[in-house]
Amino acid sequence: MKELLLLRHAKSDWNAEYGRDHDRPLAPRGRAAAKLIGRFLEQVNCAPDLVVASSAVRARTTADLAAEAGGWRNRLVVTDKLYASSPIAVVQLISDQAPEVERLLLVGHNPTWEDTASLLIGGGIIRLPTAAAAFIRIPVSRWSEVTAGRGILQWLVTPKLLKRGGVR
Which domains does the chain have, with CATH numbers? Predict the structure, then answer.
């Protein structure tokens, strides 16, 4: 059984000074949310074996802050393949992962993340606000066996829900 976490980047700062969209940083609220998600994933024993993040500043920063706050000891790979990509491209990236990786965390963007989650679980409308994480189990032994409709959505959590539940 493989486990996939799709984490949408945290809230970005539209008022910050940045050149292109790729360089937009996180807002203070986003930085706090990324840390909260990182701590939560550690608390529920869902720290990833590998993190692959979009090369966009807001996604890389989300991954870095979550890993630091959660105390994860894993490798971080940054790739352009998750910026302005498609669900099919994301599934291909998933399929390319090494079989020894059991739990994979991808950090990226909407609408691709919502569409990818829906594709993997066989349909339905999935909403991932900023810094939301979807946990999907996929009954395969190798990532190369991942196909549309094979995944099972286990849970979806948002920073707002965590705060309401008292997670800090």
Answer: 2-11+20-164 (3.40.50.1240)
